[in-house]
Amino acid sequence: MSAGTPFRLAILISGRGSNMIAIARACLAGSIAARVAVVISDRADAAGLAGAAALGIETATVLPPRAGGGAAFEPSLAGALEAHRPDMIALAGFMRILSGRFVDHHLGRMLNIHPSLLPAYRGLHTHARVLEAGDTQHGASVHFVTAELDGGPVVLQSKVAVEPGDTEATLSARVQATEHIIYPRVLAWCAQRRLAWREGAAWLDGRRLDAPMVEDFRAAARS
Ligand code: GRF
């Protein structure tokens, strides 16, 4: 990237897109020194598409074969991405598992947000599983995407308290509110070239992150 060329983000969504909107607003407000070059959905009915368009962001839909798309979903997705030359690709509620080949091709240039304190609770239904286990804390993780599902190096986590009487809805709302803070924060580091991928690890300000950074929201909720 030469000086003066804006850092370009591509955001992949499948649904509501509240993280995408938080990221896009942070770009528009200047707290991420980047522009959202494109929002791509694998579902035609993703509510986030309208939200992105309302912010003046270009959108695209790449459908998998079962939803009426061609057989070559990943090549089509790669093509849609390459057309916009993203410096970083942010998965934000993108509900498809990408192949190892696709991930390896974009290694170090793809981030995801997962609603748990990874490595705990990879996969789906994290809030229900946390409640079922009786955990007292929960959160979200922004991590580099590697071929191992929800297994790439974590950059930043938010921690929230599980409160007595929490339901899946109240807990997920509490976690999501923090997602909208930590994902833009990590993408701002990317755009400032403070965050890098090297030797299979995340590096921040030239230091290898052997453990994730943590933003603790537990006290904030009680005060
Ligand atoms: C978020 O909770 C995120 O952690 C998970 O999917 C959800 C997406 O929500 N990966 P939204 O579409 O950003 O509102």
Chart the SSEs and their pairings.
Elements (H helix, E strand, L loop, with lengths): L6 E7 L4 H12 L4 E8 L5 H8 L4 E3 L11 H10 L5 E4 L8 H6 L4 E5 L11 H8 L3 E8 L9 E8 L6 H24 L3 E4 L2 E4 L2 E2 L4 E4 L1 H5 L1
Parallel strand pairs: 1-2, 1-4, 2-3, 4-5, 7-11
Antiparallel strand pairs: 5-6, 6-7, 8-9, 9-10
Helix pairs in contact: 1-6
This protein binds 5-O-phosphono-beta-D-ribofuranosylamine.
The site of 5-O-phosphono-beta-D-ribofuranosylamine (GRF) has 15 residues, from α1, β5 and α6.
Describe the structure concisely:
By secondary structure, this protein is of the alpha/beta class. The chain has helices at residues 18-29, 47-54, 73-82, 100-105, 126-133, 168-191, 218-222, and strands at 7-13, 34-41, 59-61, 88-91, 110-114, 137-144, 154-161, 195-198, 201-204, 207-208, 213-216.
Describe the structure.
The strands form 2 sheets. The protein has an 8-stranded mixed beta sheet with strand order 3-2-1-4-5-6-7-11, sandwiched between helices. The chain has a 3-stranded antiparallel beta sheet with strand order 8-9-10. The chain has helices at 18-29, 47-54, 73-82, 100-105, 126-133, 168-191, 218-222, and strands at 7-13, 34-41, 59-61, 88-91, 110-114, 137-144, 154-161, 195-198, 201-204, 207-208, 213-216. The mean pLDDT is 95. The radius of gyration is 17 Å and the shape is globular. 33% of the residues lie in helices and 26% in strands. Helix 1 (18-29) packs parallel to helix 6. It is α/β, with parallel strands linked by helices. The chain folds into 2 domains: 1-96, Rossmann fold; 113-223, Formyl transferase, N-terminal domain (Rossmann fold, 3-Layer(aba) Sandwich), CATH 3.40.50.170. The longest helix has 24 residues, at 168-191. Bound molecules: 5-O-phosphono-beta-D-ribofuranosylamine. The site of 5-O-phosphono-beta-D-ribofuranosylamine (GRF) has 15 residues, from helix 1, strand 5 and helix 6.
